[in-house]
Amino acid sequence: MVFASITFLYWFLPAVVVLYFLFPSKWRNGVLLAASLLFYGWGEPKTLPVLCISVLIGYAAGLGMEYVAKNQRHRKILLWVAVLTEISFLLVFKYTDFFLTNWNRLTGSQIVLRQIALPVGISFYTFQIISYLIDVYRRKEAPQRNLLRFAMYISLFTQLVAGPIVRYTEMAGQMEKRVIHFTDIQIGIRRLVVGLSKKVLLADLIGECCQAAEKATQPSVVLLWILAVGFTLQIYLDFSGYSDMAIGLGRIFGFRFPENFRYPYCADSITDFWRRWHISLGQWFRDYVYIPLGGNRCTTGKWLRNLLIVWFLTGFWHGAEWNFIIWGLYFALLLAAEKWMLRGSRGLSEGRRTQGKWLRHVCVIVLVVISFTIFRETDLHRLGTTLAGMFGCGRLPIVSRETIYILRNNFWLFLIAVMACTPLGTYVSERIRRGNRRKRIFGILEPFALLLLLLTATAYLVDGTYHPFLYFRF
Amino acid sequence: MRTSDTKRTKAYGKEKAATAVLVAVWAVLAIFAWLKPPADLSLSERRTLRQFPEISLRTVYTGSYMNAFDEAATDQFPLRERFRSLRAETDRYVFQKKDVHQIYLANGYLAEMLYPTNEKSVRSAGAACRDLYQTYMKNTDVHVYLAVVPDKGHYLGAGCGYLTLDYTLMCEEMQKEFEEAQWIPIEETLSVEDYYATDSHWRQECLGDTAETILDAMGAKAFTDLERRTATTSFLGVYAGRSALPVKKEPIEYLTNADLEACQAYHVENGQTLGIYDTEKLQGRDPYDFFLSGASAIIEIENPNGDADRELVIFRDSFGSSLSPLLFRSYGRITLIDTRYINSDIISKYVEFQDQDVLFLYSTLLLNQSEVLR
Predict the structure, then answer these.
(1) Using a CB-CB distance cutoff of 8 angstroms, which residues of chain A are in contact with residue B26?
(2) CA-based nearest distance A351→chain B, Å
(3) pTM
(4) Which residues of chain B from 36 to 65 reach within 8 Å of chain A, CB to CB?
(5) Residue A163 distance to chain B (closest CA, Å)
(6) Residues A384-422: pLDDT tens digits?
(7) A151/A236 same-domain check
(8) Does residue A462 belong to any structural domain of this protein?
């Protein structure tokens, strides 16, 4: 099931909310677990056992580490066995065909591809289980003894399929006790509706524009840039919209999830971009891969090695195709280059550092747009042609009749989408809220604006067929 | 202090009430979705709506139950038509989109943005026409004619900045592929006003010049005593349904006289004999089916007041339904063949080609996706 669907918004969610608040507090985790399993099984019932086995392994390994608490060696073995088992699930279900394809290419053999169904959200819940196991191993957290609670933590439908990757540390207390105020529900609904609107009203419409651009019979340089910028907007609005919905839903049920995006397209450096984009994933790799490898407190060579490993894994996590690996390594290269270029700027005054900020913004945006072109195009040959075309090396006209139409047809949509990628909305609402009277009026009008957004998003769901979720495959 | 506290409490209460309204609307829609009896048809979209599936272990295990449920929940959502209109208006007025589901509104007319020109499809349609000629007509005395009906966008789109089919190219390709046919140019006889504002088709009452041009080319006469009547005043065509844009209903008018009223149309597929105009169809999914009862593989028409020795065969699509009655005057027998619904190999079962006038009349809509021809 996906959030942006009639089934979820008007069948599943109302039923779950009613049941959740009907039951007494001690039953509520059970309600959420049952709802989460239904939510997960709805989309892909055959892969439900994979989730259940992963949960059981994580749970048993956590308890096991407590059982052999005094024997560090046994704890370590348990950790490695559990982590490798979890990773092996990920490798088998997500990467088998990738490995077989490349093996066939290398050796000329013709092993038939397995075409194994990818369990939805496997990359997310595997990472959550691994973070739990490592935290328990590091004795940062006591293992969860209650299977129901542990299963709920991993499978909670609000963030199961698309994150944010919520650490056990952040959830342990909230699973024990949650207090829900009316404000939580208000804020939750706001985030949910805003996220839904970003996804349905902007990301999906831009996706349709990208489809039209991809199918164009008269490609041009401008059209390739429209496609690249369009996809850059789509992926952010799609993914951050989904994260907003996850955070909002969590809030309605009394959970506080970490933010996953902080206006990444406003970043003024690539480092800054990754502090703002898919924050929970970046932090996961930082805490569980980069720092254990030595981070940047080592020789330049080792640091470069660490950087390459982390970004290779980040790219590979996103998909079982070479373009994702190239995408990850592209960022490794950019980060290394950025670090090298900025090595002398530490001692500079604030004034000197802010010089050329706009230029840096533009550079970051262009580099990010290129990165998402790499991300979008799984066919490497086409990727090369597209990138060459974007920079005028593809013998394409600058513009075509079709390009002009697509541009005219989507100009306002792009403009609204660009604004949605900036903190403009938050800024405006904060300005309005400054005066007491205006704050009161805003407080009353806001739910009606949200209602309008909800109804409009519903209209697009009722009368539309194009509602893909880009991060679903991860 | 107390006053400001009271104000704050009141304001908070109003905020709560406003949020409650939002939740209440959400809940009402959800309850309505759960309880609303399922509808069978969407008349505006001219399709059957998906129904909620029967649950079984197998369908749940394979996931087909869930997929079918999702589709049905979307199709059966309450106030479907209102929501479709809301979407169309948001597209048009908020996002300033030029088209909604490829349908655009310009100068009061809805038209489909058909693009790009599928040259391969046009060539294949031309080849299919030639094959029919080679198979059935080559060594006979038939006179073969070819005309291509421009779609509404041809007259409307380019001037308003929309992408259009290349009508000239399509005509050239058809003539090249089907050299045996005498070309009848009809482009100049039409304008955008000759099409329904909300539908893809042309208006019969405006086709006088087109019919005359075709009849002139075939050496036949046009009716001179046709009377204009109104079949319905509340027609909403296929484009209105597909786009859900707010447009006015329009009339379907038709031309008739005593000769046409005497004509009998025999529908070979279902064995029914009907009149030229079928008023029952005005209540159906597509009121344009009023003309010759809509889609039919072969229709044999007897015109008791026509020349018994002259016969006309028209290979046509739906545009032919409204035009063809205007061509009947000189012919005692008219056969309409729609090769979308009958395999070309079995046409000889119904028509023996000897010395008829044979008109191939296809629209650019069909030529651009000619894979539907059989």
Answers:
(1) 14, 454
(2) 40
(3) 0.88
(4) 60-63
(5) 23
(6) 999 999 998 888 999 999 999 999 999 999 999 999 999
(7) no
(8) yes
Q: In Å, how far is B349's CA from the nearest CA of chain A?
A: 42
Confirm whether A347 is domain-assigned.
no
Residue A20 and residue A87 in one domain: yes
3-state secondary structure of B192: helix
Mutate which of A463, A465, A466 to test chain B, going by most B C-beta atoms within 10 A? Answer: A463
- Give residue-wise pLDDT tens across range A176-230: 888 899 899 999 999 999 999 999 999 999 999 999 999 998 899 999 999 999 9
d(CA B93, CA B115) in angstroms, rounded, equals 24
A294 within domain boundaries: no
Q: Is A244 found in the same domain as A377?
A: yes
Query: Per the structure block, which two tokens stand in for A1?
Result: 């099931």
ipTM score of the complex? 0.88
The beta-carbon neighbor of A463 closest among B12, B61, B84 is B84
Domain ranges, residue A247: 184-269+353-473
Residues A51, A152 within the same domain: yes
Q: Determine the Cα–Cα distance for residues A24 and A185; give it in Å rounded to an integer.
A: 18
Residue in A closest to B157 by C-alpha: A405
Q: What is the pLDDT of residues B260-299, one digit of tens each?
A: 999 999 998 888 888 999 999 998 888 999 999 988 899 9
**Residues 6 or more apart from B115 whose CB is under 8 A from it?**
A402, B163, B164, B165
Nearest-angstrom CA–CA distance, A229 and A373: 9
Q: In terms of domains, do A362 and A454 share one?
A: yes
Within a 13 Å sphere around the CA of B160, how many CA atoms are in the beta-carbon half? 22
Return all residues near A474 (Cβ < 8 A) that are at least 6 apart.
A123, A124, A162, A317, A318, A319
Closest chain B C-alpha to A374 CA, distance in angstroms: 28
What burial class does residue A26 get, using C-beta atoms within 10 Å of its C-beta: 0-12 exposed, 13-18 middle, 19+ buried? Answer: exposed
Q: Which of A1, A451, A462 sits opposite B84 (nearest CB)?
A: A462
Out of A128, A157, A178, a domain closes at: A178
Record: contact B244-A217, CB cut-off 8 A: no
Question: Could you report the per-residue pLDDT of A441-453, keeping only the tens digit for each?
Answer: 887 888 899 999 9
Among A2, A10, A439, the strongest candidate for a mutation testing the B interface, having the largest count of B CBs within 10 A, is: A10
Domain endpoint, select from A160, A178, A196: A178
- Interface touch B87/A463, C-beta < 8 Å: yes
**Same-domain status, A231 and A371:** yes
- On whether residue A323 sits in a domain, the answer given is no
Average pLDDT over every residue of A450-474: 78
Which residues are within 8 A (CB) of A270 and not within 5 positions of it... i.e. 6 or more apart?
A: A331, A334, A335, A338, A364, A367
The answer to whether residues A155 and A34 belong to one domain is yes
> Active-site residue among A181, A278, A318, A381?
A318
What is the number of domains present in chain A?
A: 2
The verdict on whether A318 is a catalytic residue reads yes
Q: Which of A7, A182, A205 is the closest to B95 by Cβ?
A: A205
Size of interface A-B (CB pairs under 8 A): 134
Give yes or no: residues A412 and A448 share one domain. yes
